[in-house]
Amino acid sequence: MGDERDPDLELPIKLEPCSNGEYVPGPLSAVAAETIRRTHEAADDHARRLGLSRRTFLRSVSGAALMLLTLDATARASRAGASGGRYRLPAAAPCDVDAARSAIAGDEFIFDVQVHYLNYDLAQPGGVGLGALFPQQACGESDPRVCYSVETMVEEMFLKSDTSKIVMSAIPIPPDGGPLSIDDMELVKRIVTELCGRGYVLVQGQTFPSIGTAAEQRDEMEQLRADHKVTAWKVYTHAGGPPWWLDDHETGGDAVIAGEAFLENVRAVGPKIVAVHKGFGLVGGDNREYADPVDVGPAAKANPDIKFVVYHSGYEPGDTEGPYTDDAAPTGVNRLVASARKAGIGKGGNIYPELGSTWRTVMSDPTQAAHVLGKLLKQFGPDNVVWGTDSIWYGSPQDQIQAFRAFEITPEFQEQFGYPKLTPAIKEKILGKNSARIYKVKPSLDPCNFTRDELETVRQELPTGARSLGPKSAEEVAALIRAHGWV
After folding, report:
1. Of the segments 176-185, 236-245, 444-453, which one has the largest average pLDDT value?
2. Are residues 93 and 122 in the same domain?
3. Residue 194: which residues within 8 A CB-CB, separation 6 or more?
């Protein structure tokens, strides 16, 4: 297949093993490998029929349709029993642009509530630092730091995808040592505001409840909210400091008693939205058990006025997602379902499962994808599941959007497990309307249209300063990883 970075060999739906830096990706599955092989094999023929070059075809909506149809057929052929999920597209879609657009194009309001980048000072020499943990460094730029830059992030989100609005989300490193501070998030907002107008970018406030006293934390939160229009509080219970639980249920062991005081601070300072990382526990190293969502249900029950957006929905790579059972309750997404069930929180409650990295990981296995979406919708309802992609660690999220538009839970799984039908109306809620309600924004925006030249001009004119917040040597990288539990 040649050089994987050759643009002529790029595929429109990214199925290769990839990580957000919080887990070790598994090997390429047999289904994904066969899908990639068949798509490459068929691309030339379909491109000729449409009078396009191979590269142009693969980057078109028809190329994406071909690959999704191929994935659907390959996945079904690999299973002895019924596949739980399907990618439904017209058979003519690879050669009929209108047919392809009818299935995987759209004008929905898409609100991505988990977006990141890394702000390196490219004028200074240095390595990619923390970015070495993420796959985005292979974006093809001569300096891999460019792959994480604000220009790249804005381009990937607003030029190369149908995303309407984003929430800039923090990473589990205190701001004094990290390349994604609140000022870096504000930079994105200023750039996009210059290009598109107000309202396209929201920023979270990051806080570390297990570092310092509750009073010190409240002062910092009040100052952060006074200086920035933060729309939620981002926390990690397993990384960025000593481990802790949202509900302080552990009185011994390594956990610090910090959860209840933090939630009181959220209530006092506002806004009353907590975005908490749950699942993908590898980043926590020895503390990965604290990424378990066991504390989400009790905390949500005790704090009904606070909304809990649960990043990743408790998913763990390596756990094969099947139907919820009592025996499977301690694994993966089932942990969040079990925590909510025990607390008596179901449809329409204050728990909002989010799909960042989770959907990207399971979309190559339609049966697992059906179980993940089916369980979340069955427990929490179609008004509570929210869209996120963990971009830009995976490049543009357009392929995730296209796959989600075409995906359905099969009637067999609906009947067998009580999963709801994944209708266009439910997809619209997940893609954006649910988060619009959570964050109290209007679910409508004009598309943000601009050119790369306009983006570069705006970036140059903004007073961003020349500073490098990331580690500047191999020794600093190693120290950063050790200090914050990255592995």
Report:
1. 236-245
2. no
3. 458, 461, 462
